[in-house]
């Protein structure tokens, strides 16, 4: 349906609530969209903490977290369709770049990255590639397509950044039980 084309009546029907209930919580459709984005971001941070507790290997946490994010198609649709999205997209992209940077920095500390990796550039390049995959995913119809695109992007970038022995330990596919939304 998409943000722009969705009417408040359609949103209420899908959510199973009345207009009064919707407007009792949200002043506008945009406020509802922002609440959905905030919820998805909190879910992603919860998934990151769970993955960190499970793996300890920062590159595996990165792979899994990116797959969890790719499952959140509603976020991609809202982020790039709602009016004034640029400010929200910019801040979300900065947070994502910081999270990727932190995981790469941890991997570097553990000796999993090749020598002389520029963490700022690498994090920016990975996020740029993943935003591209996300945008392309908006046009795709099968559920598995985003996971395939994410895996390709991660393999390309992490192969260039990580030491071969660190790559051998990675499971490239999506995690099966974390972050389903």
TrEMBL record:
Top-level taxon in the UniProt lineage: Bacteria
SUPFAM superfamilies listed in its UniProt record: Homeodomain-like, Tetracyclin repressor-like, C-terminal domain
InterPro entries named in the record: Homeodomain-like_sf (IPR009057), HTH-type_TetR-like_transc_reg (IPR050109), HTH_TetR (IPR001647), Tet_transcr_reg_TetR-rel_C_sf (IPR036271)
Keywords in alphabetical order: DNA-binding, Transcription, Transcription regulation
Biological classification of the source: Bacteria, Bacillati, Actinomycetota, Actinomycetes, Pseudonocardiales
PROSITE patterns in the record: HTH_TETR_2
DNA-binding positions: 7-26
Sequence ranges assigned to domain HTH tetR-type in this UniProt record: 1-44
Family matches, as Pfam families: TetR_N (PF00440)
Molecular function (Gene Ontology), one example: transcription cis-regulatory region binding
Protein's recorded name: Regulatory TetR family protein
């Amino acid at each position: 349906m998409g943000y722009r084309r969705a009417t408040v009546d359609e949103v209420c029907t899908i959510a199973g609530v009345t207009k009064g209930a919707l407007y009792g919580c949200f002043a506008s459709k945009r406020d509802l969209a922002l609440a959905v984005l905030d919820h998805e971001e909190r879910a992603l941070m919860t998934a990151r903490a769970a993955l960190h507790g499970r793996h300890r290997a920062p590159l595996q946490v990165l792979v899994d977290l990116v797959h969890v994010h790719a499952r959140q198609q509603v976020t991609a649709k809202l982020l790039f369709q709602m009016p004034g999205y640029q400010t929200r997209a910019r801040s979300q992209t900065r947070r994502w770049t910081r999270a990727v940077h932190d995981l790469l920095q941890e991997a570097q500390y553990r000796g999993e990255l090749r020598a002389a990796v520029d963490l700022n550039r690498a994090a920016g390049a990975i996020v740029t590639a993943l935003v591209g995959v996300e945008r392309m995913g908006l046009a795709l119809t099968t559920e598995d397509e985003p996971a395939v695109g994410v895996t390709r992007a991660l393999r390309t970038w992490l192969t260039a950044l990580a030491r071969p022995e660190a790559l051998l330990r990675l499971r490239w596919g999506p995690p099966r039980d974390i972050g389903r939304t």
